[in-house]
Amino acid sequence: MRVLVAMNAFKGSLSASEACTLVAQGFRQGFPEARVVEIPLADGGDGTIDVLVAARGGNVQHVEVAGPYNEPVDSKVGLLPGGTAVIESAGCSGLALAPPGERNVFAATSYGVGELMVWAARHGAGRIIVGIGGTAMNDGGIGMVQAAGGRVLDKAGRQVAQGIYGLQQASHVELGDIPANFQDIEVIAICDVENPLAGPEGATRVYGPQKGIKVCQLREVDDYMDRYGSILGRDLGRDPRLVPRAGAGGGLAAALWAFFGAKLGDGANFILEEAGCIDEIAGAGIIVTGEGKVDSQTEKGKVPYAVAKAGSKHGVPVVVLGGSLGDSVIHGYPAEFCSVFDSTTGPGTIEEAIERTRLTLPFAARQIAGLSRAMLLRSPARRELSAGGVVIRSNLGKLQVLMIEDRFGFLALPKGHVDQGESFEQAALREVKEETGIECKLIARTGSHTYRFLDSCCSPVEKTVHYYVMKQAGGEIRPQPGESAEVMWVGEESVNSIKTYPNVKEVIGQSLAIYAKLAQKQT
User: Most buried in the list 84, 394, 489, 508, measured by CB within 10 Å?
Assistant: First the structure.
C-alpha cells in the first residue's frame, strides 16, 4: 500500500519536513509493508520557501533588508528552477521578528517585502511568489510599493510615512518605476485567509488587535484602509476592496494585486500543485496530513483541508493528525476528513505538549498505521497451508530449540509450503532440512497456528501452519541463501527474550512441554 504523509509545520515545534519525518517513522513501524512517501507542505506562511525548494529543487539565498521597524534583518529568498523566486513576508515583516514590548503597529512596514522583490527581479526571476502570513504591519502594502519603485503620495506630493501613518496621509498613488523594474515578471501572492481589505471581516478589524491596534482605534484605522482602497481604484483602475484575500498581510495582498496585477491564490492549494502533491494523492491508498492544532480554522485555507479535499476527489481516505484538537472538532469536522486524531498522551500544558511532540507524534502515527493494517487484514484474499518443525535437543542438561534468523532480523521456526501430494509431516521434515540443513525425525504433533499477513502486493493472506516436534537425526547446520541469514540453537531460558513473531514463543513453549513429557515417560 502506498501511504502519503503530507504534513504542515507544527508552529513553535516542528517544521513541515520534521513533522513528515516523524509521522512517516511511526507509520513504518506500525505498517512495515506500506510504502510511505513524504511531501512537506505549507499554506503560504512560514516554511513556504523550504517546502517549495525541497519539492522543486533550487537553492536558498540570504538577503539583508529592512525589518518591520526598519531594523536590518536577514531574510531568505528561494530560487527555483525555471526562474521562480519565493519570498515569505514573515521573514522580513513578521510579527515574530520583534518581542511584544518593542512592537508598534502604527510604524510597522512592509518595505522589506518590496526590497526582496526588487532583489529577485534583478537576479533574473520571471515569476515571484509572495507568501503572505504572520505579518506585523497593517500598512496596506505601502512600504512594499515604495521599495519596489511605486509612489504613495500625500496631499503635498511627497512620499507618505511608513506604516499606518502612511495610510492616514495617502492622497494619490502612481506606479512609478514598478512597470520598468518588473517588466514581464509574473507576481503571485498566496495566503491562507480570504479576508477583504476593509470592513467587519477586513484586515484591520480581524487581525489588527493581535498586531497591537486597540479596540478603540479599529474603526478609525479601518476607515484609513477603506479610503486607501478607493484611492487605488481611482488612480490605478483596480479597486481591491471587494477582492477576496486582499486583506492578507495587513493589506499587502491588495497592493500586490493593484500595483502588480498579482494573482491572489489559496496558499495550500497552490503549494499542493507546485510541490507535485496532486499526483501522489491520486496514487495513494491512504493519506495522513495535519498541523499543530486542528480546529474550526483548519477548513479555512489550511493544509489539512486542502489535502482532504484533493483526496476526496480521488476517492482516497484522509486521516488528520494534529498536535492538539480544538473543542470544535468534537462537535464536528469536515466530511472530507476520514478521522481526526491528536498526538497528546495526557493532561499537561501547551509547553509540555510541544516538548514531547517528537515522542508523541510518531507514537500516534504508529497507532493509526496499526489500525489501518488491522482493517486491511480483516478479510483475507486467500488462504494457505504450511508445515513446520520445532527441532529440540538436550545440551548439557538444558533444552535448546533450532531457529533461523530471517531477512528481517527476526528469529523464526523453519516452515514452508506443502507441495501437492505431500502430507503435513513430509512437508515439515522437508522444510526443516531445506532451511537449516538438518535431517530430523518426528516425535509428536504440536498443533496448528493461524495468522494473517500482507503479501508483497499488500494483499491480506491467512496462513495456517501445522507444527511438529522433532529431533535431529543427521546433517549439519547450513543456512539457506535468501531465506535464512543464520541458523542457531536457542536455549530454553532465552526464548522469552528473543525478537520473534506473534505466537512463536507459544508454539515453542507447547513443543518443549511435549518433548519434556515424552522424555519423562521414556525414563
Answer: 508
**φ/ψ (deg, to 5) at 67:** -80, -175
List 279's β-bridge partners, or say none.
none
- How is 451-517 classified by DSSP, letter by letter? EEEE-TT--EEEEEEEEEEEEEEEE---PPTTT-SEEEEEEGGGGGGS-B-TTHHHHHHHHHHHHHH
Sorted by sequence, the CB contacts under 8 Å of residue 71 that are 6+ apart come out as: none
pLDDT tens track for 267-296: 999 999 999 999 999 999 999 999 999 998
Residue 87 and residue 44 in contact, taking contact as beta carbons nearer than 8 Å? no
Diameter of the chain measured on Cα atoms: 116
**Dist CA 314 CA 6 (whole Å):** 16
Residues 315-336, buried b or exposed e (16+ Cβ, 10 A)?
ebbbbbbbbbbbeebeeebbeb
Each residue of 19-31: pLDDT tens digit? 999 999 999 999 9
Task: Render pLDDT for 443-464 as a digit per residue (tens, 0 to 9).
Answer: 999 999 999 999 988 899 999 9
The whole-angstrom separation of Cα 152 and Cα 163 is 12
Q: Which residues of 14-42 are buried (b: 16+ CB within 10 A; e: fewer)?
A: bbbbbbbbbbbbbbbebbeebebbbbbbb
Coil/strand/helix, residue 390: strand
Helix (H) or strand (E) holding 66: strand 59-66
What strand order describes the sheet that includes 339-342?
35-38, 2-7, 286-290, 318-322, 339-342
Q: Is the pLDDT of residue 347 over 90?
A: no
Question: What is the grid cell recorded at 460?
Answer: 491480506
Give the residue from 22, 110, 10 showing the smallest Cα distance to 358.
22
Cα–Cα distance measured from residue 115 to residue 412, given in angstroms and rounded to the nearest whole number: 65
Residue type present at position 329: V
Residue 161 has what DSSP assignment?
P
Inter-helix orientation angle 203-211/248-260, to 10°: 130
> How many CA atoms within 13 Å lie on the side-chain side of 511?
33
166, 167, 170, 172: CA torsion to nearest 10: 120
Is the CB of residue 3 less than 8 Å from the CB of residue 284?
yes
DSSP classification of residue 170: -
Under 8 Å between Cβ of 26 and 364: yes
Q: Are 414 and 431 in contact (CB under 8 A)?
A: yes
Reported as type and span, the H/E element at residue 442 is strand 438-454
- The CA-to-CA distance between both ends of the chain, in Å, stands at 55
